[in-house]
Structure formats: structure tokens, C-alpha cells
Amino acid sequence: MNWLTNYVRPKIQALYGARKDVPDNLWHKCPNCEAMLFHRDLEENLHVCQHCGFHMRLDPVKRMQTLFDEGQYQTVELPKPVVDPLKFRDQKRYTDRLKEAQSKTGRSDAIIVAHGEIGGQPTVVAAFDFGFMGGSMGIAVGEGIVAAAKLAIDRKAPLIVVPASGGARMQEGILSLMQMPRTTIAVEMVKEAGLPYIVLLTDPTTGGVTASFAMLGDIHIAEKGAQIGFAGARVIESTIRETLPEGFQRAEYLLEHGMVDMVVHRRDLRATLTRTLGLLMRPTVLDGELELAERPAAAPEMAAPVQAEAPDETPSQQGADELAERA
After folding, report:
1. Same-domain pairing of 82 and 218
2. Which of 156-165, 242-251, 260-269, 317-326 is predicted least confidently?
3. CA 157 to CA 194: how far, in whole Å?
4. Which three-class secondary structure state does DSSP give residue 44?
């Protein structure tokens, strides 16, 4: 058998060529319908299953490319916060977890802030990366939201936030919870400047993120099927000891109950934002002076009602006098 392995096999391999290694990332399984999706088709369809329409989680860089005109934008360098202020450790040190997430994603933390144009309108966008420790909100994320708000005010541009988060980062304890009022104040700064604040809710948006800036938007747009809520469904069921309705905490359920303004397919997001920003950012300043809306002409003052002069005698009195004269 040596001549088969030592002579025949090399001849065959030389004739047909060595077998090429096939990458293992060419196909992806849909988490919803379990259909196998070719990676190029998935990219072209913006990571939406073409069989069932399930919206998979999207990297923030790809998110920015789909939102900004021609995929052109500029990222903003964010302030560097204190690392591991509590010296936290569970099964691993917090610093080790940060290093793993940073090497995995290539980002310093779970948020990126960028500015560009959407539909020709200068816009600031802050997008979360769920792949970085579940998009959890710590000091760095709070700094990112504050920086995005200040940038929007400086550029007099609307602010769009795209959360994808499991909530506050437990490794930073009370300091992560302090980011809830900080981000709320940042949102109020944008609103006081008269600028639109839009929240694009993606899967998932939960915990302290939902309890703060994610539900303070002037307009809330949600992707199809996105999970949006505070506590998890299992926690709620075990607490209230009741079965939750079907589709609970999903975007469509929240739309029916008035929690979000619209549910939009991912391919229609940029067109929807372009239309929305065009309505909200109509020019109000012309030649340095405030352009007032044309007011309807004032109605002429109503003249005081003319009171008819009372007759000297009422008809009944006149008839009584005539009868008396005849008599």
C-alpha cells in the first residue's frame, strides 16, 4: 500500500491541485427561521434574513454607512474616562474583560459618535456596539452621549442615538447608574437648543438605557422585531406570576401601545430619517432675521350690537287703547 500513498496520491494531487481550504464564515444561520444565508446575500440585504425578515444585530460602523449619505461620515474622538474605578473583579478582572472586548471589536468602548449628512442635513449620530460587553453603559458611554449632545449643539444639527444595550455596566456599580441622569441632562440640552432628538431603537434596548435617554426622544423609531423594555420577560413573569402576552416587549407590541412612533424595515431607515429631518429642520432663519410664518389677516373688530329702539308702546298696549277709544 506504500506505492498508493507515496506515488499515486502525489500524482493525483499534482494533477488536480491540492484541495483549497474553504472559509467557515461563508454561510450564516438565521436565528429565527434557521435558514442558511450566503454571506454576500446577507451583506447586500443589510443583515436581514430574506426568508423571514428577521433583523440581525448590526455593527455600528455598518450602521453608520447605511444611515449617512453615500456612507460618508467622520468619527469623533471621545474623552478617555477612568478605567476600572472600583477595582472590580468577579470571575475575571474588569480590566481583563475590557482588553478582551477592545481586541475583539477594535474599539475603546461600546459607543461611537460620528457626524455627517443624512438627506443633505448635517446630523450627529451616536451608535452602540452590542458586541462590546453587551453594549453596556458605563462612564465611557455616558461621556459619549454628552459629547454627542455638545457636538450637535455646536453644529446646530439634530442628534440621533442608536442604542443596542443590555443596560448599565455592573462592573462600574453606582458610577454606571450615574450615567442615567447625565445622559438625561445631555438630551435636555439638545432640546433646549431647539434641535430634534431622535432615538432609533434596535435589538436589544433594555435596562438603564431604556430607563434614561432611550425613551426621551422627540420621535422614537424602532426596527422590526427589536426587543425593547426594562427588565427581561422571564423576570417579569416570575415577579407578577402571570403569562405575558405574545410579542411582549417587541417593537410591534410597543407600537400598538403607543410607546414608539413607528416601526421601520432596515432598508427604509435612511429614507425615513431623511423625510423626518426634512420636516423637523425646515429653515426658519432667512438673511439673519427670523422668518415668521404668514399669519392670517386679523378679523375686523366686531361692532357692538345695535340695540333696536324700544317702541313707545308695546303692541298689546296699543290694541288696548284702540279698544278703549271705540268703546
Report:
1. yes
2. 317-326
3. 10
4. helix
Both 87 and 209 in one domain: the answer is yes
Query: Which residue type does 157 have?
Result: A
Whether residues 128 and 52 share a domain: the answer is: no
The number of domains in the chain is 2
The number of residues in the chain equals 327
Q: Could you tell me which residues come within 8 angstroms of residue 257 by beta carbon, excluding any fewer than 6 positions away?
A: none
Q: 3-state SS string over 203-270?
A: CCECHHHHCCHHHCCCEEEEECCCEECCCCHHHHHHHHCCCCCCCCCEHHHHHHCCCCCEEECHHHHH
Residue 178 CB: number of other CB atoms within 10 A?
A: 14
Find the domain containing 188 and state its range.
58-282
Do 183 and 224 touch, CB atoms closer than 8 A?
A: no
d(CA 89, CA 173): 12
Same domain, 69 and 52: no
Is there a single domain that holds both residue 97 and residue 236?
A: yes
Output the pLDDT for position 25.
74
Decide if pLDDT at 106 tops 50.
Answer: yes
- What are the tens digits of pLDDT across the range 35-51? 999 999 999 999 999 99
Q: Which tens digit of pLDDT belongs to each residue from 8-33?
A: 677 777 766 555 555 667 899 999 99
Last residue of a domain, one of 257, 282, 307: 282
Co-location of 230 and 278 in the same domain? yes
